[in-house]
């Protein structure tokens, strides 16, 4: 029997789980700075991962769950308002990078163009960026608006891994249909990492797995 492409990530082994726990233990993650231009980026002196996702996908909730800091990443009440790349430190050797939410056609065109240019520069020019985590709502799967960021990651040669959010909101009978749709979409993207992480920030599902993945990137 052929195994499915893009399987769900396995539970981390003991060593990886320990590394993930140690990295995020004690809620020591801190907000460093918000960046609106490449000149404002902090020194590329540590392992870096970034999080991308359309607005309201649960990005802030996921970052808060990962770091154990409930109010660390704040969701804007106004869709598309936050146009900064936000950097968080985790320990002495990791950055978590929160990219602005995308997918709002009512944002001013000049704002959209400026953001897209900054995003392309960041993804193409950040040598310490080890992986992009693209958040996809487990209730809806990959939407047309997500395809632009996936294609941009392909062209930037940045390995990305899909993280399905809000898994607790999906009935088990509907989950396989969504997974099939996501797998089909990812098959068209050469930069896609061949595992999917299924998470629920509310229930804590998949958080330890994601912590272990981040902690073991070099």
UniProtKB/TrEMBL annotation:
Keywords, ordered alphabetically: Cell cycle, Cell division, GTP-binding, Magnesium, Metal-binding, Nucleotide-binding, Septation
Every EngB-type G domain range: 45-218
Gene that encodes the chain: engB
UniProt record similarity statement: Belongs to the TRAFAC class TrmE-Era-EngA-EngB-Septin-like GTPase superfamily. EngB GTPase family.
Gene3D superfamilies: P-loop containing nucleotide triphosphate hydrolases
Protein name, as recorded: Probable GTP-binding protein EngB
PROSITE patterns with a match to the protein in the record: G_ENGB (PS51706)
UniProt xrefs under InterPro entries: G_ENGB_dom, GTP-bd, GTP-bd_ribosome_bio_YsxC, P-loop_NTPase, Small_GTP-bd
């Amino acid at each position: 029997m052929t195994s499915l492409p893009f399987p769900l990530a396995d539970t981390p082994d003991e060593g990886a789980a320990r590394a993930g726990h140690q990295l995020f233990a004690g809620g020591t993650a801190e907000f460093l700075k918000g960046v609106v231009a490449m000149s404002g980026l902090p020194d590329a002196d540590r392992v870096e991962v970034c999080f991308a996702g359309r607005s309201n996908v649960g990005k802030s909730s996921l970052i808060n769950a990962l770091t154990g800091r409930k109010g660390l990443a704040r969701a804007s009440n106004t869709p598309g308002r936050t146009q900064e790349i936000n950097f968080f430190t985790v320990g002495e050797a990791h950055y978590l990078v929160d990219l602005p939410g995308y997918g709002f056609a009512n944002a001013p065109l000049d704002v959209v163009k400026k953001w897209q240019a900054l995003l392309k520069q960041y993804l193409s020019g950040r040598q310490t960026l080890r992986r992009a985590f693209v958040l996809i709502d487990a209730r809806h799967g990959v939407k047309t608006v997500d395809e632009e960021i996936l294609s941009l990651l392909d062209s930037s040669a940045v390995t990305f891994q899909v993280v399905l959010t809000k898994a607790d909101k999906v009935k088990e009978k509907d989950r396989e249909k969504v997974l099939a749709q996501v797998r089909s979409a990812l098959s068209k993207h050469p930069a896609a990492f061949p595992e999917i992480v299924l998470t629920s920030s509310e229930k804590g599902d998949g958080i330890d797995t994601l912590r272990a993945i981040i902690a073991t990137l070099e």
